[in-house]
Amino acid sequence: NAPRTSIYSIVKGGERGISVVTARTSSSIALPRVMKQGHALPPVRCRTNKSRVAMMLSRRRSPVVASLQLPPVTTLLFLWVLSCGHATANTDIANMTALQKHVSFFDRNKDGIITPIETFEGFVAIGCDVAYSRDSASSVHAALGPITSPVDAPLPHINIHINLIHRAMHGSDTGALDAKGRFVPQKFEEIFIKHAKVRPDALTSSEVEEMILANRDPLDRRSWLAPVKEWGLTYKLASDKDGFLHKDSVRGIYDGSVFVKLEEKRSLQIEI
Description:
- By secondary structure, the protein is mainly α.
- It has 2 domains: about 160 residues, no CATH class; about 100 residues, no CATH class.
- The chain is built from 12 helices and 6 strands.
- The strands form 3 sheets. Strands 1-2 form a two-stranded antiparallel ribbon. Strands 3-4 form a two-stranded antiparallel sheet.
- Helix 6 packs across helix 7 and helix 9 packs antiparallel against helix 10.
- The longest helix is centred in the middle third of the chain and has 19 residues.
- It holds the Pfam family Caleosin.
């Protein structure tokens, strides 16, 4: 039996990184692990030119990246992807699945492709601190970039392609999204029927933990961490002052609409 894991432990805790080694230099980029207990992602090999990247550093520091105060080699990753052109994809919101709508919030320029800097900006927009946003953007793209990139996409496969996001579906989840990322109302209702004990339309932190443990697939230990991180962040950002994560907020997580509300709320707080 696996030990119980608090939903706060992943949100607040840090993890050691893995190295991503470039093909022509000996520099390594520290990225957070996505899996524990030795199940790290394989190194992502990047084709770059040391002098070209150095020139980018001196000429293309965007205000967002400059404000991060990142180690130079980590900044390389963000600037490299930010400055490299990529083809756009179709973004027909009306015909998107719930999962595509969920991730499209992070597609800040709405071109159908999410870069690490866009993911970073998205996390900051919903209220995450800079360090968490930076580390999450690195780990998310290291994990999902190669999975969601079409075979003809330019290297490195670090950007996330929204039309292929269903490839990133993982086990040990609630089943509220099917294999294609479409919303399944019956499975969504089961979340609250099974686990909402204190209030029928909301979840407490202990009920969220109970749900995560109940959904764990004993034959797929690699999928255990993702729900802890996802639901941990959801609870931290979307629960009310009394500690309840409301049903409409959870529904909004699945289609990304709650992210828009969180960004608007944060914008108002900054203005005040």
